[in-house]
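Hello forum,

I keep getting stuck at the same step: I have a sequence, I want structure tokens, and every attempt I make locally crashes halfway through. Rather than fight my setup again tonight, could one of you with a working pipeline run this one for me? It's a single chain of 413 residues.
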Amino acid sequence: MSPKSIAVDQNKKRRPLNLGVDVSLLVVVITLLTFGLLMLYSASWQYAVSIMGQKPSYLLERQVRFVIIGGLAAVIAFFFDYHKIKKFVIPGMVLTLIMLLLVIFYVNEVRLGARRGLFQGSIQPSEMAKLVIIIYLSFWLFSKQKLLHHFYFGMLPMAAILGIASALILLQPDLSAAITIFVIGGLMFFIAGGEMRQIIPALLISLVVGLFFVFFYSTGKERITSFILGMQDPELASYHLIRSFEAIVNGGIFGVGIGRANTKFTGLPVAPTDSIFSVIVEETGIVGAAFVIILFVTFLWRGLTIAKNSPDLLGRLLAGGISIWIFMEAFINMSVLVNLLPFAGNALPFISYGGSNLTVVLAGVGIIMSVARQTAIKTNQEEGRPLNAVVSMRRDDGWRNVSRSRRPSSSEK
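Reply #2:
Ran it on my machine without issues. Output:
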């Protein structure tokens, strides 16, 4: 063996085994979950007692259960090769559409002007639909990548897929979820190699259809009107936004301290869910808000980095689509509460109370990590170090081995 080959082999031995865990992404998710549980308890204990008639820690305890369930889903997804999800895609899509239909035709309970939950609101199919549609589109775009430039085989079938799911969600009604699905679908089509000359007309058509629903759907029209008035004069904004502005102003730069906010006690609507970012700003100030924003930007950066380094287009679509979706949910939630966007019912991922959203988001994180793991497996195989190989604990790279006890030889006696 030549000296050059020996040096290459020694470098392979010295290079640590890539286990496929994106530490930065994992730290961001754990930080958001931990901070989220702290802020949820602060925002929900009075709500649980006075509104729900439960003990102060009621919502916190339920959220911890959802964290455990979602965490288990994330771990399973991490160790599951994302290519094997293919056999579950069509059954999952069919089940999701059935659940969306059940919400429309069999749910009589109306909350905040909409029917969105099954089993007394415990399961919200529209939340599950976002992840399922991203997965379905990823496999569909991956299989049709050579036909995407043909209108009848590319854009038209994809528009039909998005249109059917969005129509069922709009009937609940949940306008923000339907818009989110359309925007993510367009971005995924672009990632898969679609051309702007196809995407722009489709987005314009979607915008026209969306405006039609907004102005003929009373709640949507009210939200647009409130948004425009709030942009002109904050005092003319909706009650929800006025209370949100009050919380943000009270927070100042460093906040009033965790647990010491007043607006959550004096009428800030749905503080544990949609308005929890306002509670964060009031209690931790602009500094705390910036911290949360940086965490979500870091999440997007790591997710897109994993997508960029993925071994194939399928991994790129899955990691990219899920990362953009979670970041978009956070962006919409935070923007709404400072009147940068019309009011929408998007939760703040990892932080807002809600089992469906939290479980689905954590499952999505698991799929992103699965893409990173498969990338590591491919890298290790190319370097002659398969990920599932037994890691040697012996110091074969030139370090001195641990001495072992031995009998002295006759010459040493």
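The longest helix spans residues 276-309. If your local run keeps crashing, start a new thread with the error log.
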